[in-house]
Amino acid sequence: MVHLTRIYTRTGDNGTTRLANNQEVSKSDPLLDAYGSVDEANSFLGLAISDPQIPTTMVPVLRHIQNDLFDVGADLSTPLGHEPALRVSKQWIDRLEGWCDSWGKNLPALTSFVLPGGTSACAHLNCARAVVRRAERLAWTVHLDKELNTLAMTYLNRLSDLLFILSRAANILCDQEEILWVPAQGKDL
């Protein structure tokens, strides 16, 4: 359990911060961008959950993912060789794949790419998806320099798939027609 007695510490006022392994790094370190993007995605999930249009059956899944994302951030903030209290494991990815299968089984087949939008819940889930994709890209970039747990990046990849599926389901469960991409629609404007 985490106990925060004071929110401000003043330890980062010089442009540095500490990783979970207590290593001091610059606040411009790309690793902070990676797990900061995980935090940003988590905030978008909170926004999606607070949306009155979100199907209530999705809320427990999204809350579980929010908790996972704190753990993913902790995992990413500790390069391999410095063992944290936990690491993302294959079971986490299997759980996401199970949710992908469960939520995706009744969705209509795709005939085009889907534009983000429709219901506000769908739009919020798509914002979270896009930020998760960024977090994954950043983490892989950092991995070239600092060895990270690749299962954390795999988790982010699968999570973006699930968020896409959930965004589609959010529209369909709210009787909102999906907005499909029409290639070259604006070329004559």
Structure report:
By secondary structure, the chain is mainly alpha-helical. Helix content is 54%, strand content 3%. It contains five helices and two strands. The protein has a two-stranded antiparallel ribbon. Helix 1 packs antiparallel against helix 2, helix 1 (30-50) runs antiparallel to helix 4 and helix 3 (90-104) runs parallel beside helix 5. The N and C termini lie far apart (58 Å).
List keywords for this structure.
elongated, two-stranded antiparallel ribbon, 189 residues, 2 strands, mainly alpha
Which helices and strands occur, and which strands form pairs?
Elements (H helix, E strand, L loop, with lengths): L15 E3 L5 E3 L3 H21 L8 H18 L13 H15 L15 H24 L6 H24 L16
Antiparallel strand pairs: 1-2
Please state the overall shape, judged from the principal axes of the Cα atoms.
elongated
Strand line-up across the major sheet: 1-2
Radius of gyration: 18 Å
Give the overall average pLDDT: 87
As an assembly, this protein is single chain
Helix residue percentage: 40-55%
Give the DSSP E fraction (strand runs of 2 or more residues): under 5%
State the total count of DSSP E strands.
2
Which structural category do the helix and sheet elements fall into? mainly alpha
Describe the main β-sheet briefly.
2 strands, antiparallel
Q: Element order, helices and strands?
A: EEHHHHH
Which residue ranges are poorly predicted, with pLDDT under 50 across at least 5 consecutive positions?
none
Count helical runs: 5
What is the distance, rounded to the nearest whole angstrom, between the alpha carbons of the first and last residues? 58 Å
